[in-house]
Amino acid sequence: MTSDGSNPRTFGNVLGMLQLAAILLQFAGLIWLGGRWSAEMNATAERVRELQGIVGDLAKSQAQGAIIDATQGARLETLAKRLDEVVARLDRPDPRRTP
To answer: The pTM is what?
Structure first.
């Protein structure tokens, strides 16, 4: 090795090449991680869409259940009123029957 600096493979050049290699490896790692992150985001987005469908179906089911409950509640109120009328009629004395 000569000390005049004419040798292209000096310690500084080797160090610079190693730094460049390290930077390129880090860049490749970032690209690889970015691809993995993108795949995970796509999978997560698909799960979210599936959950949106499930939640929509559950909301429709609950709404239909509430409508059915309200209808049955109205029918039960009507039946309770009719039953009260029947009981009231049975409690009244029959004018046709004289004791």
So the answer is: 0.48
